[in-house]
Amino acid sequence: MNSASKNILVFNLNWLGDILFSLPSLEAIKLHYPNSHLACVVPPAYRNLLKNQSSIDEVIAISDKTLLGKYRLLRQLKQKKWDLGFLFHRSKTRARLLKWANVQERIGYDSNHRSHLLTHSIPFPSVPQHKMDMMRSLLFAYGIPHVKEYYEYCPAPHARFNKLPAPYVVFHPGSNWGPKRWPIDHFAQLGNELSTRYGASLVITGAREDQALAQQMKALLHQTPTDLTGQTTLEELADICRRSSLVVAGDTGPMHLATASGANVIALYGPTSPLLNGPRSKHHQYFKVIWENPGCKTYPCYDKNCSHDTCLENLTPQRVLIEIENWHVFDI
Q: What is the domain class of 7-142 according to CATH?
């Protein structure tokens, strides 16, 4: 623990799951410098997600994708004297922004030819690591220990959706690219079985652009689900998942949000690796159902434009149902 009062800036990652992965590292920084002012730079979409986190004193939510955005962010950073800057992001541009903002100590990995922009250039790991471990390793190398290996997010109760019919199961069919999506007819078959066997109500969640997927699923379901696609904030979604009996989703940010919030989660992985970005939980058991190599030369392939897209197609609803039955989720 360092008793010195410092202004500390963290350049976080861009995606929901990655930002949740960063929470233990942010907490460790705050514990190591308890008298510090800790600010975190995130995309504007995640401002409210982080603003009530006890380890974060300031959320700087400015997009730096455009030249104007970079200028606005730099201008805001220059309004304060920063003692430490941690780069969880591998961007060379963001390393430049820390230097131009006159951050005294700049800590990050030596990737993307940016060592000259850092005061503490940490060797990039020689073997692939889980994203949480990448951030933990960076802090360890700088001398900040005791970073948790799991993430937690404590959503506040939201009255707007507190009367969903229990027990209910949350289905999140969307993803930011197609090959990570479990087929809609698989979701529907599983939903019909859960309704018949356990009397479970079904709740469909997602962004506004997932509404077409929800409509396809509703046409195949025997019962009428509660369709919340495009209607929830991230904080509301976290609370909905926390109160559910089960969440079924692919490799998505909302799946990680559900896990971090303490939900029981089945995470369906196909072309991506849970070893590098799988969920990590402390209090609630979760399990991943992973389809083994379907014959690809490289697996997992991380191919957003997969031509055959069979990983999750071959992961049957029956296999997922067996996992649920063995887990006794509805007996708890």
A: alpha beta
